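User: tokens in, sequence out, please.
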């Protein structure tokens, strides 16, 4: 089932962690609509500019989010967020391009290590019905916990 010209529901709900834990990761109709808005307004423009986008985590039901150690208020549970990469592109460059060109709610460069282009990933969210905050953060693991600093790290 296509949510937008180049993105399917299947890739937005696929989770190896969920499969391994036997979790049925099915979104409600409202969450599917949120995923569709994310695909149309964020993922499609990235694909148009750079080619195929790899979605490493999209929708997460409550059980899946908990099993993955996701934030208790994660937008992944609302179908509003995806973790993405563009093969061959530094994740910091991808985050900065999104920051400069797209409407989004929250943009996080996660676990990126300067000098290692493929390290980490980009978390991006989009709200279809309430104003987008346009918040940028960089997340790094400090003593086993995610620590967030404002802005996209250089
Ligand atoms: Zn995420």
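Assistant: Sequence out:
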């Amino acid at each position: 089932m296509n949510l937008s010209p180049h993105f399917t529901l299947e890739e937005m709900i696929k989770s190896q962690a969920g499969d391994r834990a036997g979790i049925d990761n099915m979104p409600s109709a409202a969450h599917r609509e949120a995923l569709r808005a994310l695909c149309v307004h964020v993922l499609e423009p990235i694909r148009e500019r750079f080619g195929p986008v790899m979605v490493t985590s999209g929708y997460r039901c409550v059980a899946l989010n908990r099993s993955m150690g996701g934030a208790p208020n994660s937008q992944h549970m609302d179908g509003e967020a995806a973790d993405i990469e563009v093969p061959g592109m530094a994740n910091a460059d991808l985050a900065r391009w999104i920051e400069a060109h797209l409407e989004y709610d929250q943009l996080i460069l996660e676990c990126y290590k300067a000098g290692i282009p493929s390290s980490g990933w980009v978390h991006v969210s989009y709200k279809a019905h309430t104003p987008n905050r346009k918040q940028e953060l960089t997340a790094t693991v400090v003593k086993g916990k995610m620590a967030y600093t404002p802005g996209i790290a250089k």
